[in-house]
Batch of 2 targets.
Target 1
Amino acid sequence: MLDPQIILAGVLNGLLAGGIYVLVAVGLTLIYGVLHIINFAHGSLLMLAMYAVFFLWKLSGVDPYVALPIVTAGAFAIGFVLYRGVIGRWSHGKDENILLITLGVSIIADNGALLFFGGDTETIDVPYAGKIIELGAAFLPLPKVISCAAAIAICLGLGLFMARSDTGKAIRAVAKERQGARLVGIDVEHIFAVSYGIGIACLGAAACLLMPTFYVTPQSGYAFVLVAFTTVVLGGMGSFVGAAVGGFLIGITESIGGLLLGEQLGQIGISLIFILILLLRPTGLFGARA
Amino acid sequence: MRNAALAAALLAALVYPLLVPNYLITVGMLMFFTAFIGQSWNVSGGFAGQTSFGHAVFFGVGAYTSTILHVSYGWNPWLAWPVATAMGGLVGAGIAFLSFRAGLRGSYFALITLAFAEVFRIVANSAGFTRGGLGMLIKADSRFENFQFATPIAPYYLALALCLVSLAIAWWLTRSRFGARLVAIRENEDAARALGIDVFAEKVKVLTLSGAMCAAGGTFYAQKYLYIDPSIAFGIDKSVEMLLVTMVGGAGTIFGPLIGSIALTTINELTRNAASVFPALKNVQPLSLVVYGAMLILIVARLPDGFASLLKRRHA
Amino acid sequence: MLEVRELSKAFGGLKAVDKASLDVAEGEIVGLIGPNGAGKTTLFAAIAGFHTPDSGRIAFAGHDITGLAPHQVCAAGMVRTFQITQPFARISVRENIMVGAYFRTADRREAMHLAEAVAARVGMTSQLDRQGSDLTVAGRKRLELARALATRPRLLLLDEVMAGLNPTEIAEIVEVIREIRTAGVTILLIEHVMQAVTSLAERVYVLNQGRMIAEGTPAAIAENPEVVEAYLGHGAAKVLRA
Ligand SMILES: Nc1ncnc2c1ncn2[C@@H]1O[C@H](COP(=O)(O)OP(=O)(O)O)[C@@H](O)[C@H]1O
Ligand SMILES: [Mg+2]
């Protein structure tokens, strides 16, 4: 048996990673909840955002945290345009078309990254990378703590935006009843593009929060896409609370799985959870529909 | 007219390796091989409409089954081949049974196949009997009775034969009750059920067939390259390749995967020289996949039946 | 031939079908009418195995078929059509009908002949090579009928095959349905509009808000005040009588 102290440290580390998964999953679940589409490009777009953060740092020395507003805004713009120009326009409203189109986007992104950036693993050396916060027996890297806190703050901010702002209310109206929303004069296609943009903006923010402690390769997208879908499916497709709970659970699963089964086999937990949830409880923990 | 064209194409395929340098024979081999595994995807994804993102799971099961039997237990690879094929069918049946029993459709089925492939990849990456991430090497002994080849000619003809078998299977699907039922399921599951089709059973059957075909391809691949590792065998690249050639060539058509494979292989060869034109590119290999990703989007957006539909339209 | 007893089916809190019973004897044409949302389609779906009933029993040709899957119900000799037509869009009308015909034979040639014969019966011969997606509303309704017929059922459940058709088309399909019955197929048909049923059915059941409120000859049903109220709203019967 493992020392409970180590388990506790594992849980804490998992929670820290989980905070960022929450942010990634909130983006995915927002897109699903509003547009009812599966955004298979989610991981690949996160990977591109991570490269953006990396190059901002490498070429202009911008700290990842400082880059957050720029990358987030850029990601929103890219998401908005991607929806307007490709996904919304060409899918003809069919679920499987969107799956294939977003697969196409992810193939282009993954291989484009390989083409232009090469296959090397890229990391950012921030001066505060080695700073540690001691919490009982657990040593928590300072950037992970900052990133997790920031991710939670951003999610709460997004929640507030959805609850209070006119755009947020329109998004929720479209998510609930798109025909009705259309009847009361909401430009539904515009809201779709905005929602997709916000979903991708979450990835931009997540990329900035990940890069101080994580690495990026062209394969990062694939690594994250299953994590993101598992989080969302675990919580229940379209559910924000579900995405939040799911994110932390997945973070812990990954961390504890790594402790118990080793770095390699530890990753199996996420795929197994994904499979089991789909087979046994497709509505997830908080979802209403399959 | 059509038959004459097909006969001419077959004749050309048969004499092709006698006329071209070795390098082009290997290109031809790859083309037919990719068409073959593409057809395995097409059987379930194209005809039956069950889009999979994780067909590599079958490919990998085939590659690993025969390689383990051969390397660890001393089986002759020719004998291991049918066993590997059957294992692929078994895994196909198992995944189909679980997924379709749970009522998964569309995107959810696609995603769960991806997760299954990932589970297999991670297991292969960690387990002892697969030699983990190191992968498995097959000792070179280039004799035909070992399922190994000294020249590119033999694998070329073997890949061609596999491709022809897969074309025959696809042709049979267009002419048989089983195939008609698959198409009905693809087009409208509820109507299919109303007309007496046991949708669940047919889906399990088709994934069994598809998994077996794909696994047969896995063994061929392992014997051709004498090496497999978890990423090659179970990684998303193979799954995507099978899906792409089929979607681009024409899902649910007999020749779709072959057309798509010819196009992909050609683009591959053309882009191989792109490094000299665009020195900024670090790595030209992915260029063809970028082109292909774009083609996938265009196909879904503009030509839902693939390039094969262009040919058909001209015939009509 | 068909016996439905006290069948109930709820969606969440909504009782779409509430203890409904009906009987169809061999050789009959029976109508099932009722206002929109009465639960007619849900009742059909439950009979044909598409919904598992919450309670109640369904017997067909002497066998209990409650809870059987649709393909098993079809094998027993009963097949439904869809109110919202469900053509196989990207294959031809011939191939559409062949899917039904393959239920009785594995032989392609035989299935094709059967499909063509059925197409002739419902008047679709000229459309055999059309794509399923290229049909008009009338064509789609006929295709529903043809596909179901190709399975050679003993009992056909027809769900609003006349909705959306013009009077000429209705007259044609009424004739087709008569001939199908003459050929020995029992028919239970849903119609939203009463007139269409009157000319075909010997007996009519009326469903309202999930409950079977009346049963009788079309003439008797038309007189029934409860039925009139169901259609026209509360108090309507009194007004009409006055
Ligand atoms: N799958 C379903 N889920 C939830 N409610 C349904 C479903 N199918 C039908 N209903 C509801 O059940 C009621 C009966 O519908 P239906 O059987 O289609 O009526 P009819 O065919 O008589 O017009 C309606 O209120 C309808 O909204
Ligand atoms: Mg109805």
Target 2
Amino acid sequence: MNNVVNKAYKLLRKSEQVTDEQKTDQSKRSFIGGLVGASGLAVAPGVMLYQIASAKPADQAVTNKVRWGMLVNVNQCTEDCDACVTACNDEHGLWPEEGSSTDSQWIRKLTVKDPSTQNTKSFPVMCQHCEHPPCVDVCPTGASFKREDGIVLVNMHTCIGCRYCMMACPYKARSFVHEVLEDQLPSTPRGKGCVDSCNMCVHKVDAGDNTTACAQACEKDGHQAIVFGDLNDPQSEISKRLKDFGGTQIRADLGLNTGVRYQGL
Amino acid sequence: MIGVKNINILRRVFVGLIIVAISTVVIADGSKVPPPKGEQCVEDPVWMRTNHFETVLHQRDETVLRGIRTEKHSLKNCIDCHITPNKDGEYARYSNSEEHFCASCHSYAAVSIDCFQCHADRPESAVREAIKQHTANGINPHADMKSSANELILKSSLLSAQ
Ligand code: SF4
Ligand code: SF4
């Protein structure tokens, strides 16, 4: 599998659309959905039991009761689609310059081919939000850190731009901002001299959106290849999918226990 | 020779004077800073003039490290309330030390602070509008080299060199 990931070739044919596996999964979900309801369950008139994954109050710190993650269903991702990348750029105001090799890329599409079977797959790769993140280990200032809920971030107030973390990350997930930026969005402050990477749409997560820009865009485009959710909650869709179908970690041999998993890789 | 102690006393007197001056400047008539949106600041304005950086500094760690996103002391909340359009419907940028609320005081007090090299200096709607215009003109929003951000950094380094 590592060879597959490391050697990116042009996709020769599109991935299959929906497999039987996913069809079963869909029907199972709607069955459970019918029982529990999307957002809450009424136990008595006016009393609602909300799902654990709903918004936390703004004045409370995040806890390790939840661990946010994403599951990418590779079989539903097509090579010609880059809706997730565009959505990420738009959500965070990244606006990479055409042809620039250094502008920040928080998420990129990768196409890989297994030389032995000629099977090609296309899927997005972003920060994998490792449980044991090498980028955090090497950071001399503690700027690269993991939040209690598993989201790995750069604290740009203390980042000195040494770029050790970029070297340490096995997924090349981080970028360094070389130029003065303009028109940053209020929810994603970033600037010259700091490293940045996918922040799992932390502002959306904290607001209780329970999704990320890439997952939303993928769903809107009808692929539904990205599922965001709480890996610690056995009732969350992501956990159920992982339980039923499993999920691969890219470079699982490194033992980083990534928060981003791939189904069908 | 002025001793270290004297310098410290002088410094305190100087800071005191600046604070008094700031209070007067903000209150003074003829300010080109458009009025804030809200009726009342989240804290006593006099206290805020001298202590706002403490609250913002505290809140920044709470938000980044622990995901606490209360509005009261958030920079975003300050900006949303204080940065309002002028008569022509335009939002002043941080490089405009006459009209931008934060810049008007920072430049008066010779404070070179770089919040706005990374943080938005106007509300999200205004930033989105600017992005839309850049994109419509075929310009990358980050690639405007005569940008006010550059101007601002130039000005800030001049300030700190003084
Ligand atoms: S994928 Fe890279 S940047 Fe993300 S947590 Fe792991 S080591 Fe850090
Ligand atoms: S670039 Fe910043 S976040 Fe990365 S290791 Fe250096 S100080 Fe830490």
